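Model it.
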Amino acid sequence: MVVDEGKDPEPEEAQQSRLILNNFLSPNQCNELEFIHKSCSTVGYRPNVFSTTLSHLIATNSPHFLTPFIPIRVGAEEQALGGIAVCYLNNYGDDFSGGLFHFQDGEPQTIVPLRGDVVIYRADNRNIHSVDEIIDGERLTLALWFSRESSHDEDAKLISLFSERTLHSNKWLPLPASSDMYWFSLDQSSEDHLGFDICWARLHVIGFDILYAEDKSCCSDISELLMEPVQLARGNELFDKEFINILHALQVVQYYCWKASEVEATKVEVETSKVLLLSEFQQHRISSLKTLFLKDNHLAETVFRRATPTCSESMQQSFDWTKFAATIAMWEGYARDCYEGILRSLPYWKVQESIFKVSFDEM
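Modeled.
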């Protein structure tokens, strides 16, 4: 994002190169961004990193998930010092081990990631930094880069990409990327494919399995399987609802994790969905698929189990397929509202060649 293009920094701004803001994000903002990341992330641009970029959200037909980023970006821009803002979405110690942020010089020298806090710093030699290796769990951050160089502005590209996608999209239903973008192993450069598909693994660690309508156990093309309709299973039960693909199922499940308390308290009228007992043959098919999608179960558990303690405990104690069916309707309403809001904003973004929060109430 371009910040005040052509404007020179104020003297006091030039002197300040580092800023820590506590509780910059609300708990609900952190939870919403966590939901989006766990629903849509791919293997990141660096080893052992999972990444969710705005361009990827658009490319996978989830542009409506840009909505919660917009007010956060505006707020961070006001404090950004023309540099980088790193917002922490979960807690050191509770959700992951390792991952402390260290500046080479100056104060504060070490940042302990706490949910809602943001560290803002100029990208210069005063702020050379490093991050400790993650030992287990998943460290979640939202990173924002601000620049006064118009050549670095990404908004126009995102708007163009979104405009193209809306012509061919199936509204808010996601479209997976290629399978290599979801395959994680400790050594991404190795030809050894021991690892796991992160979509399948995120479902697995909270107790869900995937079943295809047809036997796919002999299929070796995971990219093809990611595009196929799926059903969710849990224990020895099969939920009689077809999702358009695994990413669709994952988004609904992660939405349930985010909104579980609201789902429990909300009386939603939904058609009772059938829950079937898995046959022995279906259980065998699920086991065969696990060997394809989850080649290193221990690694998946190490990375993701600690990152979903609340959701895992809730699922184990009081999971109810009827409540889950209500979640599907809630997810559709959430996605639809976000999608329609983006569509309303798009004409204004095109004019300004910038993504910003449009205040329709003032029009």
